[in-house]
């Protein structure tokens, strides 16, 4: 068990999770009794926030942050991160309220933080990770989306959209929250990509993701399209930068070792490769959108 759980805050955003709240808080405190929980409730009409207040009154491991109305997951997490950073928490975690992120696996994330990671992502798509009870179409879509993101960004991560995470405070302190992308759930990708680009130690651990049993999904139909468009922009900018670096590296080497003819060939190969990549990204993006449309009409 992790030695740092005493300074760990598990942030759980809620919107209409009255059935799940007792289950999730009970499971977290059973599995990792030393952590603190922060419920960030957006004035849930079903009374989740009132129930959370009752828990907080009788249990000093549970805290509640109330927001005025449904303001989206990113806003809820930013509020939760700021709350935790203003206090002396060393590790801040993201966890859904609906049981998709098993509290019994939180220790897997915390152990990697203990070993030096700055961000640990509970991943469905590394070996050993899995999804349970997800409709095949939704899993396919999520896998395809992640494949696309991983090719587009080249960040070396398999599940950048995942929302089960542990952050070291220094990583969050380095992020300007106002700059994070607001399109759909893409802030998760944005956060992970920024961490990788800044050279933080980002790791994935396999988790079992279980579909929600109770309550309703807040998934918004526009998110796939918005997200892919956004990622494509970053991906092309990032890859273009990489291609430029590669091209100058090739020509630097070539000026020592190759004749002029070969140098031209090297430059051409780089430009063909980056054009192919653009075509490939366009193709995967079309496939993902098509999948999403057929998923919506089911
Ligand atoms: N505070 C707050 N929490 C939210 C908001 N939208 C979603 N959540 C919570 O964020 C977590 C993830 O939302 P979900 O509805 O489970 O989204 P999902 O996992 O993509 O969809 P499901 O298939 O329903 O599981 C849950 O704990 C929600 O209650 C919001 O606007 N504000
Ligand atoms: Mg969910």
UniProtKB/TrEMBL annotation:
One of its GO terms (biological process) is glycolipid biosynthetic process. The keyword Transferase applies. The keyword Iron does not apply. It catalyses: a di-trans,poly-cis-dolichyl phosphate + GDP-alpha-D-mannose = a di-trans,poly-cis-dolichyl beta-D-mannosyl phosphate + GDP. InterPro entries: DPM1-like, Glyco_trans_2-like, Nucleotide-diphossugar_trans. It comes from the Bacteria. Pfam families: Glycos_transf_2. Keywords: Glycosyltransferase, Transferase. GO terms for cellular component: membrane. GO terms for molecular function: dolichyl-phosphate beta-D-mannosyltransferase activity. Residues 10-174 form the Glycosyltransferase 2-like domain. Its EC number is 2.4.1.83. Belongs to the glycosyltransferase 2 family. This is dolichyl-phosphate beta-D-mannosyltransferase. It comes from Corynebacterium flavescens.
